[in-house]
Amino acid sequence: MRIQLxxxxxxxxxxxxxxxxxxxSDGISLGIEFLDTMQNGLKENNLTKHSLTIxxxxxxxxxxxxxxxxxxxxxxxxxxxxxxxxxxxxxxMPLISVDTEKKRxxxxxxxxxxxxxxxIKRKCIVSDIFTFxxxxxxxxxxxxxxxxxxxxxxxMRKCIxxxxxxxVFNML
Length: 172
Prior knowledge:
Strand content: 25-35%
CATH topology: Nuclear Transport Factor 2, Chain: A
CATH class: Alpha Beta
Structural class: alpha+beta
Helix content: 40-55%
Order of helices and strands: HHHEEHHEEEEEH
Number of helices: 6
Largest sheet: 7 strands, mixed
Shape: elongated
Mean pLDDT: 87
Number of strands: 7
Radius of gyration: 19 Å
């Protein structure tokens, strides 16, 4: 019985050793990188840098969509929705909270998004408060994303409906 307990303690401690540490600074840095690379990726129509913050496999839960899969599937989802819809995602300085024990990051910020179908001549600005809750894996990569915002706000629906009339979108 003592040998079994000793083996369990060794296994528990070795799995803890294999995990990367996760500090307040790590969480703040990852949260800012997540938002900055998303903002720049949407503007530049290229999410390559954003994908570097994401675990190989993850789940995401945004208003109206809940899914899981590979990093490529998540990036494809963004490319087929938000990149087609918007050319600007302008965030203000986020409030960031980090839970180092559970490896979670909370990000809340006021944002303006230009839902213009990437047409620079058209503007349809939606202001809202966005919140992301990010869960981090043992390699300090994002493995789960929960996004909270009002996707049914009158202004957002108006902007999206205007685009639907102008283009045919295949919203995932």
